[in-house]
Amino acid sequence: MAEASRWHLGGTPKHKLHYREDVEIRTTLQELLLYSIFLINLCILTFGMVNPHMYYLNKVMSSLFLDTSVAGEERTNFKSIRSITDFWKFMEGPLLDGLYWDSWYNNENLYDLKNSSRIYYENILLGLPRVRQLKVRNGTCKVHSFFRSLMDECYDKYTSKNEDTADFGLKQHTEWKYSSPRTNSPWHWGFVGVYQNGGYIFTLSKSKSETLNKFINLRMNSWITRGTRVIFIDFSVYNANVNLFCIIRLVAEFPATGGILTSWQFYSVKLLRYVSFYDYFIASCEIIFCIFIIVFTIQEIKKLKEFKFAYFKSIWNWLELLLLVLCFSTVFFSLYSNMQIYRMIGRLLRNTEKYSDFYFLAYWHIYYNNIIAITIFFAWIKIFKFISFNKTMSQLSSTLSRCIKDIIGFAIMFFIIFFAYAQLGFLVFGSQVDDFSTFQNAIFTQFRIVLGDFNFAGIQQANRILGPIYFITFIFFVFFVLLNMFLAIINDTYSEVKADYSIGRRPDFQLGKMIKKSYNNALEKLKLKKPETDEDKKRENKDLAEKARREGFDEKEIQSAEQMKKWKERLEKKYYSTEIQDDYQTVTQQEFRDGTTSKYKMKLSECLTET
């Protein structure tokens, strides 16, 4: 029999299988293009939220209130405050000078201030600044019996249970009377405690001289006591030139150990989001973003109905769900923050005689920025789902997937040693070195040591014997041994993957071939590239043969590979044609014999390689 009319060994027909793969590749390509548009839109949306002037506004404000020194004492500024005396010097000096700008530098009034200060002549002070204090009660801790004859008072660290709510001092004005906290106000996380809203509050005056007299009166009547644990200085400014609000909070914590720890927050935010034409363009991007979320949600619901529990076996599906949750959270935070802004901003701006609490609005706006930043991070990570069209990225993905078990086993061993050294460093150097003052700081410090950033002099000064021993052994075991083991795991797995790819054990990059083919066809139609001829293919085959000879393959192996390639191309042309989808192609017995023999040779070669 010269010809066999059909070649079908059961299962799905080859031409239908190829047709299904072709449809899947086209669907994947369409999904990639759609997701690329979504990612571009998300990037425009996120970068449109960030104003380059935010950094400079924060910088000038922090320089004014943090770096300005007390008159006659160059070393005393807000950052260097260590005692109550230094604190009052700052309040009566740099703080007042920074808040009240009554005239131009030559004492000339260039414009109507409308009863409001303009910091640096450009930033309008919104409402009145506010000063707030939180205290703890006496007797919140116990004095040892040995020292009760010397000291009978004890003030513990700040907690909501230890907070003092009784009136004190003159008991005449709000600064001497306790004000209950509001339920919707965020708490403040400081160095030595977490502080709620409320406390002993007073607002400053619009007159600089009246505010100075207020500070002097508080200082003379001991407004700051032994029970004081924190003082907040809050105010907000608005710059109409760049449409930015700057919400400022200066914090002075009074730990139970004595002294003062200062910290600060400068939040430059764009609360009025839709002002210019570019802002309305960003609003259109937000609408498109919501449309994409609806489309992706429908797609995932369809997949979930189709695959059911098998849907959750793919890590990419979990990433899709995480991304959808983040996108919906972004929309929720955006709607909530905008509703709060438009509900409160008018009322805050009308009450110019009171403190305008923009900190609450900035708090939610910062949360919105953080959520959308995490969203775009995972949106970029999802790009790895489409890396099958690239050989290099596929090798990277295969390497990580193959060595994941080895990496998990290594990570267990690594963190056992790492946490052991972290606890050792915390216990030995925690009371002497700031980098080891807490267990968390010790962990981060050890990561910095691995990267080459360390303070060996401080460790050695804290303990002259254990310091050098800790440092040398940590560097030896973690840096020289464990990290090199980690690199060896990655390197060996990558070598195995590369070897498998070189002998043909690799995924078929059909998507990449389709993109390349479409690109070449477009260039040929535009007459920017000549069509590939048979001579070009022969020249390419000769180049591959020469490359194989240089790598040490003999002539028989090269000829066998060329024959296998021709057979594969002939079969793809006959059976895998997408133009004929409902009929089989004929094949000669000789072609079947040659193809079967080559296929068995390839399988035998793979078996010999594995053994």
From TrEMBL:
List, alphabetically, the InterPro entries matched.
PKD1_2_channel, PKD_2, Polycystin, Polycystin_dom
Domain of life from the UniProt record: Eukaryota
Annotated Polycystin domain residues: 77-272
* A single GO cellular-component term on record: membrane
User: Region annotation Disordered: residue ranges?
Assistant: 530-559
Q: How does it assemble?
A: Interacts with TRPC1 and TRPC5.
Protein name as annotated: Polycystin-2-like protein 2
